[in-house]
Specification:
Rossmann fold; 25% strand; six-stranded mixed beta sheet; four-stranded antiparallel beta sheet; 246 residues; alpha/beta; binds adenosine-5'-triphosphate
Length: 246
């Protein structure tokens, strides 16, 4: 197995708050890695550091052996793309134009508008948005906006895709469709994926391995079944109520 990402003793402080504390793990090429943890556990901050949006206060993140720069455009050129928990497309621009922004500024760095357009037409077809291509992004439903967010990330030609709660707020059939879509794009684009998802059952279903964060620290990592049966995880995260509900 080839190591794709190495997170080495990474800490991030915001003033007096330590959002992520001394977290280390490796990720392998082709893996789907779940990030699990209660609200405020540090998941999004860790994502932001891997995607170059936020610099670690200490520690190191290596992607294919290279330090990830604390600049999202440069991280994108290395081949890392993320989606955001709160989806904010440019509302006045069309769905196609929103996607083209990614193609023009991502790792592929398409300089040519027509080429960017062709790439995005293909990607929007893949994510099931070709019928809405010329509509304003503001007209999309939440499920549509989440698909556009995935399309925008894909248009940068990533090798590592960070998905931040792309399933939150979707109904059961939309979740199933989105899961099928994620698996399809993973295979077609040879992606490795890190996913944050609050619905445990879904995270368990999707992930090859799960890293559990608790109050900024790594509590454990393991296969979904190892994580799901670990007493520390049950105590810290699942709680009695959730265990019964799962
Ligand atoms: N920019 C910031 N400035 C100050 N504090 C921050 C900032 N970003 C995150 N924090 C704090 O760091 C901690 C971890 O937050 P983070 O958003 O990474 O957690 P999370 O696990 O993603 O939570 P959620 O599931 O609610 O999204 C929280 O206490 C949060 O308030």
């Amino acid at each position: 197995m080839t190591t794709l990402l190495q997170v080495r003793q990474v800490t991030r402080r915001f003033g007096g708050i330590t959002a992520v504390s001394d977290v280390s793990f490796d990720m392998f090429q082709g893996e789907v890695l779940g990030l699990m943890g209660a609200n405020g556990a540090g998941k999004t901050t860790l994502f932001s550091m891997i995607a170059g949006n936020v610099a670690p206060s200490s520690g190191q993140i290596l992607f294919e052996g290279k330090a990830v720069p604390a600049r999202p455009d440069q991280a994108s050129r290395l081949g890392i793309a993320r989606t955001f928990q709160i989806v904010r497309p440019f509302p006045g621009m069309t769905v196609l134009e929103n996607c083209m922004v990614g193609a023009l500024y991502g790792s592929g760095r398409e300089r040519d508008l027509n080429q960017a357009r062709r790439i995005c037409e293909g990607i929007l077809e893949e994510v099931g948005l070709s019928a809405q291509m010329f509509k304003a992004a503001a007209t999309l439903t939440l499920a549509g906006r989440k698909r556009l967010e995935i399309a925008r990330a894909l248009s940068t030609h990533p090798r590592l895709l960070l998905l931040d709660e792309v399933l939150a707020g979707l109904n059961a059939s939309e979740v199933d469709e989105a899961l099928a879509l994620i698996e399809e794009i993973r295979q077609r684009h040879s992606l490795s994926i890190i996913i944050i998802e609050h619905v445990m059952k879904v995270l368990m279903r999707m992930s090859h391995r799960i890293v559990v964060l608790h109050e900024g620290k790594k509590l454990m990592e393991g296969t979904p079944s190892q994580v799901g049966s670990d007493p520390r995880v049950i105590k810290a995260y699942l709680g009695e109520k959730n265990v019964r509900a799962a």
